[in-house]
Amino acid sequence: MFKRSDQDSRPSVRIVVDGAALAAREGDTVSAALLASGRDVRRATAVSGAPRLPYCMMGVCFDCLVTIDGVGNRQGCLVPVAEGMQIEIQKGKREIGR
Amino acid sequence: MNTTARHDSYDVVVIGAGPAGLAAATTAAEAGLSTLLLDENAGPGGQVWRAIASTPVRDRNHLGADYWAGSELVEEARSSGAEIIQRATVWSLDRNLEIGVSVGGASFFVKARRVILATGALERPFPIPGWTLPGVMTAGAAQTMLKSSGLVPSGPTVIAGQGPLLWLLAAQILRLGGRIDRILDTTERRNYLAALPHAFAFMTSRYFAKGLALMKQVRAKVPVVTGISELAAAGDGQLATVTYVSGGRRETVPAELLLLHQGVVPNVNLAMATGIEHRWDDLQLCWSPVLDRDGNTSVEGIAIAGDGAGIGGADAAIVRGRIAARAAVEALAPAAAARLAPMASFKASLVKAERGRIFLDTLFRPAPQFRIPSGDTIVCRCEEVSARDILDAVAIGATGPNQLKAYRRTGMGPCQGRLCGLTVTELMAQARGKSPQEIGYYRLRAPVKPITLAELAAVPKTEADVNAVVRG
């Protein structure tokens, strides 16, 4: 869906998405890294389980909700990636306790 | 990263570090007022200058001169003496000018003598069939990814809608080697006639030549279909096709990505939750705060600058930021105000910056069928409520957006109405034969961004706070 510009020389940052390593770039938000990966990163909504991807990328639509380092319902479009960050694609509601 | 404010209280707290917020914070701090600038993003710049300090897009021609013009303002703000906290989400503001801020999962409160809201704009909802499908995004979303991560569309891509941002985005995608298969222009033909009387003023605006040049660049490379009167996205769990009608002819094209845009509207959530009076703007078709000439709101001590005060664009936002900050300096430190540029010079700059705005507002006034959906089309993305659901609720007695919450939970999901509020107001107004002003808007309350109960519970409490809720 998206490709990286060849002007982009930012250092790589390794994150883990549902157990698999992914090379993001320094300064990527979690959502940008997921969309750039080309993998199936669709979440499922809390109401009907419908598949969604980020819509606005600026913190207003909440369609980027994702579990980051064990905390659910984070806005992936507002959180920059960090080395070793653990991402889980959130299927449905946030679970109690995370 | 700063995770908390250095002080408990400030002369001026500015919320949002886009053009208006940067200008306001700089003006206030340079006049000697203690100033705190809070911003939700990882870096300053707002949306228009997003990632200006970190973008991987190094060829300066690719993002354009108007983008790089922001560097100067960012530098000025950084050296102004204003304290700047990034990744700070403001979730509460009350009439006592107490501000609830969340940074890195912990919250704190700061007090202000003056607050300047510079929370900017968001893209108008574009509720067409299939707009919740993965692969349908806003044009602004694509531009955010382009600016901050150098990402451009690589598969079959359709851009649909209207307005200056759409053409700027298309030009930027092409310059970076991205793919656009088709542009579907939804501008109503009758708008050209309506906008004509305002064309002369627009021709004297610097945006006129820029707009024409962008459209020419894009049209040379991408087929543009005008007069789009119907638009729908379809696919099974993922966007597969875009169907449109132009001049009575229906066509379906394959697409992996559909970028939608029909202008921007003020981001009103924080201002409304504070109790600031807003009115329906019949030209811009959105809620705008009621302001005096200096940007002061109906709540004592709070001003609004930038697109949150009514859409005016980045140049106007900078000037409005300076005006609001100058008014704050006049109120708090009159002697310092005397050293600032006179208010009259700011007002003259504002007139210049706003030149031609009515032309753009009239030409790019979105068509009713793209604002007021019908049938199964989703209106509230969070709670997955369709236009039919809402009309059914109206038929059995829902009178306005707040009653509708009890029937269908519209606006009660995490986005708190940001993506459905305008649609709900206009849909109910049409169904009930009333004006949007009469129908009204959701009653918004803090926290305007979701925070966890654990975070709320961890906020420092006084003994009086505890006694107020604990018995025995």
3D architecture notes:
The complex is a heterodimer of chains A (98) and B (472). With 98 residues, chain A is mainly β. Chain A has a single domain (12-89), classed as Roll (Ubiquitin-like (UB roll)), CATH 3.10.20.440. Chain A has one helix at residues 30-37; strands spanning 2-4, 12-17, 20-25, 43-44, 51-52, 65-68, 71-75, 86-88. Chain A is globular, with a radius of gyration of 13 Å. The mean pLDDT of chain A is 96. Chain B is an alpha/beta fold. In chain B, a hairpin with a 2-residue loop joins strand 14 and strand 15 (249-254). In chain B, helix 5 (139-149) runs parallel beside helix 6 (164-175). Strand 1 (2-4) of chain A pairs antiparallel with strand 9 (151-153) of chain B.
List keywords for this structure.
heterodimer; A: 98 residues; mainly beta; Ubiquitin-like (UB roll); 5-stranded mixed β-sheet; two-stranded antiparallel ribbon; 1 helix; 8 strands; 32% strand; B: 472 residues; alpha/beta; 5-stranded parallel β-sheet; 37% helix; 22% strand
Topology:
The complex is a heterodimer of chains A (98) and B (472).
Chain A: E1 2-4, E2 12-17, E3 20-25, H1 30-37, E4 43-44, E5 51-52, E6 65-68, E7 71-75, E8 86-88
Parallel strand pairs in A: 2-8
Antiparallel strand pairs in A: 2-3, 4-5, 6-7, 6-8
Chain B: E1 9-15, H1 19-30, E2 35-38, H2 60-63, H3 65-68, H4 70-78, E3 83-85, E4 88-93, E5 98-103, E6 106-117, E7 121-123, E8 136-138, H5 139-149, E9 151-153, E10 157-162, H6 164-175, E11 182-185, H7 189-195, H8 199-203, H9 206-219, E12 224-225, E13 228-234, E14 241-246, E15 249-254, E16 257-262, E17 264-266, H10 269-273, E18 278-281, E19 286-289, E20 302-304, H11 314-332, H12 334-337, H13 343-353, H14 357-363, H15 368-371, E21 378-380, E22 385-386, H16 387-395, H17 401-408, H18 421-432, H19 436-439, H20 453-457, H21 463-469
Parallel strand pairs in B: 1-2, 1-6, 2-3, 6-20, 8-16, 10-11, 10-16, 11-12
Antiparallel strand pairs in B: 4-5, 5-6, 7-17, 13-14, 14-15, 18-19, 21-22
